[in-house]
Amino acid sequence: MSEIQILEVGLRDGFQNEKKQLSLEEKVFFAEQLAKTGLKRIELGSFVSAKWVPQMKDSKELVTHILNKQKQGLLDSQIQFSALVPNQRGLRDALETGIKEIAIFLSSTDSFSQKNINRSRDLAYQAYKELCKKALKEKLKIRAYLSVCFECPFEGKVKAEEVLKWVKKIKDLGVYEISISDTTGKARPQDVNNLLILLLKHIPKEKLACHFHNIHGMALSNAWVAYLRGIRVFDGSLGGLGGCPYSLVHSGNIATESLLYLFKGSQDPIIPKLLTLAKKLQKKFQKKLESPLLHSPYYK
Amino acid sequence: MSEIQILEVGLRDGFQNEKKQLSLEEKVFFAEQLAKTGLKRIELGSFVSAKWVPQMKDSKELVTHILNKQKQGLLDSQIQFSALVPNQRGLRDALETGIKEIAIFLSSTDSFSQKNINRSRDLAYQAYKELCKKALKEKLKIRAYLSVCFECPFEGKVKAEEVLKWVKKIKDLGVYEISISDTTGKARPQDVNNLLILLLKHIPKEKLACHFHNIHGMALSNAWVAYLRGIRVFDGSLGGLGGCPYSLVHSGNIATESLLYLFKGSQDPIIPKLLTLAKKLQKKFQKKLESPLLHSPYYK
Question: Are the Cβ atoms of B296 and A215 closer than 8 angstroms?
Fold first, then answer.
């Protein structure tokens, strides 16, 4: 049984969903602190237009800074940093920073694709085809997010066969990992089980990750069922910050510390470090984060 | 595969953990409304001394009122009402109301038993032995709660063998169902799985229920694992109200509506009725309840 891997997405999927924008210095602080917790995979930001997602406007500076620190030996050399890349311009930025891994994102439904990135699934796919070719030539690792794999806020239930079709297409792009996302947090363990049974007939389990939202409280039971099916990579967000602005709710990421509790146990040494950071996030954003461990008397 | 049963414990395990005491009229309102949601098992209160648990002081009046309404055909005749009975005096009260089911409570550890009911497990057991004999003679159904089946706030991890020992002893009292309780909410799916594998070697699955607390966000994944092991009865509390005052935290019950979502799906007709009531509870107690569905934009 291979080890659980957790991809921390708070600096991207968390920050981009907050109205309040942090300064570059604040982002650097959280990125460095996260890199010192012991987490091995961290998504730093998104090389997206500042007009489109202003919270991500200094991702290039942040990535450059963090990679420099890592090169200097000041951050664990084992940490795999990544950033989202929506287009060729983003790829150019990514390459200039020297980052080794990028992430692309597509949707299982057309309506969500239109709302999320303002173009159809097919057009987005075609554009990513070119981009991935170039990225692979530059020896970048590519991860993909596939949104709304269970229910779409605009189209309702998504058929497992439709998800499979897009997973296969995305695999053909040369990505090493596809994160199956429950964007609306509506999936239940039964749904996850059924979808994974189908996907795993066609895709090796090492190529799949899961990205669950906790809007309806189902994320951890879904993660557990995915684990029972052999999935070992899960996306989490420090303190449960963030979610998706196009699924009616600006919250819902599963907290990274919850995933650690589930898979590694209450004594995992990374948990208290994350809680310390999550408390700082609560102050920064002046809001209570939903992460249960943050409010447990056993972690006080 | 038998049907899922949910026991609603909010009127007892919820109300008794709130500082603010509701009036008898308010309790009647919530009890009647709950009985009209479609739920089939409802714990109405506790025949405990008012000195000990003042929130439960009018349980006798509440139970009498509700059973009368049921007799008059104003509430579904299929609903199984129950109430906690701590001692002979409580049993006398129960018999006077004509209630058909009582619940007793014991702990897997001595320290918790001392803190919770001020006597050792053995003494409590001996007293319940007499009580159960009398109750069975009176044709009452008896349910038992077994507290701290995973971790005790005072003694730490509880051995599965110890839990088994007490489950067996409790079964010998003639109870028809034993609710395995994760009082501190520290259990993980692995723990639940391991304990149930052991228990089910000795106890028929129909005799077991599960009572999970969500303090660490694990309750639904634990419920799902218990379901996979054959458990079909789960305790929940409207809105997630309540928990246990002796486990360091006054909250943590899993919301009944979350259990319905998990087992029956987002469209279950009972869910919106529970959410309407839970919103009223929030107003009554002037606090935000943790139940995720209460805060989901998909239920607005």
Answer: yes
**pLDDT > 90 in chain A, percent:** 85
Mutate: best of A1, A4, A186, A188, partner B, most B CBs <10 A: A188
pLDDT-derived band at A18 (thresholds 50, 70, 90) equals confident
Q: Is B221 within 8 Å of A216 when comparing Cβ atoms?
A: no
Contacts of A217 in chain B (CB under 8 A): 214, 220, 255, 258, 261, 291-293
User: For the residues A73-96, what does the mean pLDDT come to?
Assistant: 97
User: Nearest to residue B40, comparing CAs of B80, B83, B84, B99?
Assistant: B80
pTM for the full model? 0.94
Structure tokens at B116: 């919770």
Q: How far apart are the first and last CA of chain A?
A: 33
* A·B CB contacts under 8 A: 84
Which residue of B lies nearest to A214 if distances are taken between CA atoms? B292
Distance of alpha carbon B274 from alpha carbon B38, whole angstroms: 10
Q: Please list the active-site residues of B.
A: 244
Q: Which residues lie below 8 Å from residue A237, measured CB to CB, with a gap of 6+?
A: A8, A9, A10, A13, A14, A253, A254, A255, A256
Least Cα distance to B82 among B71, B58, B66, B106 occurs for: B66
Chain B residues whose beta carbon lies within 8 Å of the beta carbon of residue A248: 297-298
Which residues of A belong to the active site? 244
Give the per-residue pLDDT at B243.
63
pLDDT tens across A110-141, in order? 999 998 888 999 999 999 999 999 999 999 99
Comparing CA positions, the residue from A298, A219, A187 lying closest to residue B252 is A298
Give A266's contacts in chain B (Cβ within 8 Å): 186, 216
A73-91 residues labelled b (16+ CB within 10 A) or e (exposed): eebeeebbbbbbbbbeebb
pLDDT for the residue A1: 47
- Tell me how close the Cα of B264 comes to any Cα of chain A, in angstroms: 10
DSSP B85: -
Q: Average pLDDT in the A84-101 region? A: 97
Touching check for A272 and chain B: CB below 8 Å?
Answer: no
Mean of all residue pLDDT scores within chain A: 94
DSSP-based three-state secondary structure for A130: helix
- Predicted confidence (pLDDT) per residue in A200-254, tens digit: 999 999 999 999 999 999 999 999 999 999 999 999 999 999 865 555 554 589 9
Q: pLDDT digits over B208-219, tens only?
A: 999 999 999 999
A133-167 in b/e form (b: 16+ CB < 10 A) is: eebeeeebbbbbbbbbbbbbbeeeebebeebbebb
Tally of CB atoms within 10 A around B161: 9
**Record: contact B220-A223, CB cut-off 8 A:** no
Q: Considering only CB atoms, which chain B residues are within 8 Å of A262?
A: 188-189, 218, 221
Residue of B nearest to A289 (CA): B290
